[in-house]
Design brief:
Layout lengths: L4 E4 L5 E6 L5 H9 L3 H8 L8 H12 L6 E10 L2 E11 L7 E8 L8 H15 L4 E7 L3 H9 L5 E5 L2 E7 L4
Parallel strand pairs: 5-6
Antiparallel strand pairs: 1-2, 2-3, 3-4, 4-5, 6-8, 7-8
Length: 177
């Protein structure tokens, strides 16, 4: 996916989805600050008791500067009078450019959850991955993250998972016979 896409949420709101670019650091910081503590915990698995603004910016910089052979991130944007705001991000990363498996992750802002965005982002991300020779996503998901496990189940992919110590390792083959 090299061009932007339009998507209409269940509530009728139109959003834009495009690839993350180097200049998106501020968008990612803004997204982080609009996530609830519960969503941060479900996405990042652990949140240090104090995260400085400098640490948030440093991590957002890393996440917006991608190695295009190994990493892809898609950002969902809502348009407002004061500019665009990120409401969701889906990404994958593989260790080497020739790997056929990649670790995937997704986060959607709390006020945009349950609107069809997470599922749509994941499908777009899978299309991009397949075009790059990736045939499987893997993810570590907190075992209590019912929303993400539900999204994966509803994709109708032959998913396998194993839960241990409160985390579920999910393997999602992207090609269906």
């Amino acid at each position: 996916m090299n061009e932007s896409r339009q998507f209409t949420l269940r509530n009728g709101e139109d959003i834009t989805i495009r690839r993350v670019v180097d200049d998106d650091t501020a968008l990612l910081v803004d997204l982080y600050h609009h996530l609830s503590e519960e969503t941060k915990l479900l996405r990042f698995h652990a949140i240090p008791p104090t995260v400085t603004e400098k640490q948030v910016w440093e991590q957002a910089t890393v996440l917006s500067h991608l190695d295009s052979d190994r990493q892809v991130a898609l950002v969902a944007l809502v348009h407002a009078d004061d500019g665009d705001h990120a409401i969701g991000v889906a990404r994958f990363s593989r260790a080497a450019a020739t790997d056929i498996a990649a670790e995937a992750a997704i986060v959607v802002r709390d006020d945009y959850q349950n609107a069809g965005l997470g599922k749509y982002l994941l499908r777009l991300l899978a299309d991009v991955a397949l075009s790059m020779g990736i045939t499987q996503f893997e993810a570590w998901i907190r075992a209590d993250n019912a929303k993400v496990l539900n999204i994966l189940t509803n994709l109708n992919f032959p998913i396998t998972w194993h839960t241990s110590r409160g985390e579920t390792h999910v393997m999602v083959p992207l090609q269906i016979d």
